[in-house]
Design goal:
The protein is α/β, with parallel strands linked by helices. The chain is 24% helix and 27% strand. The chain has a single domain (3-207), classed as Metallo-beta-lactamase, Chain A. The two termini are 30 Å apart. InterPro entries: MBL_Glyoxalase_II (IPR051453), Metallo-B-lactamas (IPR001279), RibonucZ/Hydroxyglut_hydro (IPR036866).
Length: 215
């Protein structure tokens, strides 16, 4: 069984995820840790749980989700996996990070490109890769059918949806990702979001004011 742990980091209140199974192997998704206290908090948790970091994943590469990429790469000597379409957004962060008061941002190079045809393996667990663009051009989500959860970044939120006014965003494409990919998951799937509290597919189908459907 995969255990999902998350931390809320940086000025954007971004959720960073650690997924681990009984083997103690884990993956880190969207490390938003930027301040030293945030980095230390994440590192302390991994040390106390005796976890072995195997992989670093980004759902997408907006600034709030990648601030800790290079810290994770340096500390745990693991590769960074992203969708190929997110390479340009990732590289652009170093250009605009100073505008957000983050001139100390350390850019990280991607090591491998993944798509919806791939799967993620760690320990004795696996994650299915879902392609869910709209908030960002190459946005991915990571789904465990066995453990009934999905790490969906900024696609679907508890009572809301991802914004589409940033470069690479597209409202119609986002809604297609929600209706045809996210809503194809079972209603009891727990959705772990890039910001805010978790939700479920069933709840959002019924009550989300932006994308509720008749069920």
């Amino acid at each position: 069984m995969i255990q999902v742990h998350y931390f809320t980091f940086n000025a954007f209140s971004e959720n960073t995820y650690i997924l681990a199974d009984h083997t103690k192997e884990c993956v880190i998704i969207d490390p938003g840790c930027f301040a030293e206290r945030e980095k230390n908090s994440l590192k302390k948790f991994i040390e106390e749980k005796d976890l072995k970091v195997k992989l670093l994943l980004n759902t997408h590469c907006h600034i709030d989700h990648v601030l800790g990429n290079q810290f994770i790469k340096n500390t745990y000597k693991v590769p960074l996996w992203i969708h190929a379409l997110e390479e340009a957004p990732l590289r652009s962060v170093q250009v605009y990070a100073p505008i957000y008061g983050m001139p100390e941002y350390e850019p990280a190079e991607p090591d491998h490109f993944i798509s919806e045809k791939d799967a993620i393996y760690f320990g004795e667990s696996s994650l299915q890769v879902l392609f869910v663009p709209g908030h960002s051009i190459g946005h991915l989500a990571f789904y465990s059918a066995k453990d009934k959860f999905c790490i969906n970044g900024d696609v679907l939120f508890n009572g809301s949806i991802g914004r589409t006014d940033l470069p690479g965003g597209n409202y119609n494409i986002l809604m297609n990702s929600i209706f045809n990919t996210m809503y194809a998951l079972p209603d009891d799937t727990v959705v772990y979001c890039g910001h805010g509290d978790p939700t479920t597919i069933g709840k959002e189908k019924k009550f989300n004011p932006f994308c509720a459907i008749e069920v």
